[in-house]
Amino acid sequence: MKRRTFLTSSLALTGTAFSLGTSSPLVAGPLTPGGGEKPEEHITAYVVDSKPEMTYEAWIRRNNVSLTSYRAFKHQKYPYFFPVAGPVSGLSLTTETSLPWPHHRSVFFGCDKVNGGNYWQGTLRDGQIVSQGVSLGEVTETSCRIKDRCLWGKPLKPLSAGESPEPDIIEDTRLFELKLLEGTVNYVIDADITMKALVDVKVERTNHGLYGVRVSPELAPDGGGNLVNSNGKRGQKETEGKPANWMAYYGRRSGLKEEIVEGIAVMIHPRHPDTEAFPTFKNCPWFTRDYGNCSPMPMNFMSDPLTLPKGESIRLKYRIVAFAGTPENARLDALWEDFAST
Fold first, then answer.
1. Domains in the chain and their CATH numbers?
2. What is the Cα–Cα distance from 259 to 26, expressed in whole angstroms?
3. What is the DSSP string of 112-145?
4. Which pTM was predicted?
């Protein structure tokens, strides 16, 4: 089955033409595998181990066309996903770097002001989240799991004569699962992250934290796109600092002859984490920006530092939804309910 035929058939299952205020149809452009590769009508995945001293890079493909890559090399500030392919256009819904604030990396996890270190922006010397090696879990025709373990520390901080390296402060274990959604071209990436304190950890108030997404410019309000949350609030002015089940950017893709509307949503699990032990996360507010960055992140709105004593853990769960059309077309509320039941 050719990609055009596959996408047309899949879109027909949704019963929806994805356009904004026009009668232009949603059309998938032709695309064939490169390098003489045979098309695969399902999920395929592989891990790249380029050098012994490097960590890995995992690729996930659908019909032999790239959906996403999890990048976790040792020279990075932190691991991240890029691209996150639009389900119809194939164009990434996210940007690997963009102005303003070019330190954002597509879909990423980090935090500033953790024991005085910066694991969100700045140089590697300020703080770095280093993968200890990526592996694949179960891979089926419709899903794929990626596993990783990371250490938070300052391995590249210059040392004075006689000074010892600072110990790593956090170990996190990550399980990501990409799943194709039945009856549609859309897909999700679920994240299950457990952070264990290797020393007493204190996070000061900051607007740089946790599961961040930086979208392609045309999906953000400043680029002509849209920002909306699960409560129907729109734009940075209405969504910043407000609790919500999900946040979504969507809009018409640029540079294409056909009109294609796509978007990306971020969801937070209702038990994220146990709010009795960590009340900071109850009714978690969001950091949002009209230029295209958002994250469910309470640290900018808390009055006291977040503390995690040595040996204790905190578990965080998120869902990314890559969708065609609008949030209504994608049934984001139903997808959040599904996620919340896990």
1. 3-340 (2.70.98)
2. 6
3. EEETTEEESSS-GGG-EEEES--EEEEE-SSEEE
4. 0.85
